[in-house]
Design a protein that fits this description.
Layout lengths: L4 E9 L5 H11 L3 E13 L2 E7 L2 H15 L3 E4 L5 H12 L5 E3 L17 H8 L5 E2 L3 H8 L9 H9 L5 E5 L7 E6 L4 E6 L10 H14 L4 H17 L22
Parallel strand pairs: 1-2, 1-4, 4-5, 5-6, 6-7
Antiparallel strand pairs: 2-3, 7-8, 8-9
Enzyme class: transferase
Function: Catalyzes the phosphorylation of hydroxymethylpyrimidine phosphate (HMP-P) to HMP-PP, and of HMP to HMP-P.
Catalytic activity: 4-amino-5-hydroxymethyl-2-methylpyrimidine + ATP = 4-amino-2-methyl-5-(phosphooxymethyl)pyrimidine + ADP + H(+); 4-amino-2-methyl-5-(phosphooxymethyl)pyrimidine + ATP = 4-amino-2-methyl-5-(diphosphooxymethyl)pyrimidine + ADP
Length: 264
């Protein structure tokens, strides 16, 4: 039987822990067929991002059309979009596609390297967020996009409302950077779902955000309602963080294949 079809529009992480590579590994692990539209190439490893090169808008559009017009998609996920021009082109492509979209408004890498130009923030707010079925900002991205600073779990509701003002159907505010339990809030403005995971004492967390957003897209491609897709995605990323492993001299990746087991 044909698996559900999921498309990621994101940047390449040469180290294989985040970006397109994390997305495709997640899609395989979760029983879907992963496809990719590359927006940028990064030279990246466990220590940070050493370089980044954007693709021309025409190359991004052409990849997207090649996939959607022939193969089709059941869900789209976006990650690193780099510039205002790319954000706007991708928003327009998603708007013309009959499939749910998970928008991970990637701003900076775990090491603080910029993956989105400051001049692109307004396009994210006014063009990309309105076409999102689910937006998945972390706390730094919430602050950049809305000005709301989250210092505790109690602030998550205010942060979520501020993001919803820009028009995504649902928002998943990730509280992963807060101390204590790893608590995320999913809401559409009327329903609220609190996702509480244990805080795992593992520094090898490269790729958590990409992995979570891709897993949500996989659930949506399978036809799951948003809260079910997010709940399953949270379980998947929690397992992947638990099995995250050391690579290089810095922060290693989460283990996308944690459910598959490893040969001894
Ligand atoms: N140490 C941890 N233990 C358990 N769960 C965690 C931990 N760190 C993050 N999470 C969870 O991982 C998911 C991704 O959240 P996070 O805040 O790390 O995203 P992100 O900052 O966008 O990731 P990235 O750094 O890859 O861009 C969330 O569900 C969050 O609660
Ligand atoms: C290419 C890429 N996309 C997303 C992230 C998430 O931080 C990253 N580190 N690299």
């Amino acid at each position: 039987m044909r698996p559900p079809l999921v498309l990621t529009v994101a940047g390449s992480d040469s180290g294989g822990g985040a970006g397109i590579q994390a997305d495709l590994k997640t899609m395989l692990a979760l029983g879907t067929h992963g496809m990719s539209v590359l927006t940028a190439v990064t030279a990246q490893n466990s220590l940070g991002v050493q370089g980044a090169w954007e693709l021309p808008v025409a190359a991004v559009r052409a990849q997207y059309r090649s996939v959607v017009d022939d193969i089709g998609v059941h869900a789209v996920k976006t990650g690193m979009l780099s510039s205002a021009e790319l954000v706007e082109a991708v928003a327009e492509l998603i708007d013309g596609t009959d499939a749910p979209a998970v928008v991970d408004p990637v701003g900076v890498s775990k090491h603080g390297d910029a993956l989105l130009a400051a001049s692109a923030l307004d396009s994210v707010r006014t063009r990309l967020l309105p076409v999102a079925t689910v937006a998945t900002p972390n706390l730094d991205e919430v602050a950049q996009l809305t000005g709301v600073r989250v210092g505790s779990e109690a602030d998550l509701r205010r942060a979520a409302s501020a993001v919803l003002e820009y028009g995504p159907r649902w928002v998943l505010v990730k509280g992963g950077h807060l101390p204590g339990d790893a608590v995320d809030l999913l809401t559409d403005g009327s329903e609220e779902h609190w996702l509480r995971g244990p805080r795992l004492d593992n520094r090898h967390t490269h790729g958590t955000g990409c992995t979570l957003a891709s897993a949500v897209a996989c659930g949506l491609a399978k036809g799951q309602p948003v809260p079910d897709a997010v709940r399953a995605a949270k379980e998947y990323v929690t397992g992947a963080i638990r099995s995250g492993f050391a690579l290089g001299a810095g922060i290693g990746p989460v283990d996308h294949g944690w459910e598959l087991g490893r040969p001894s």
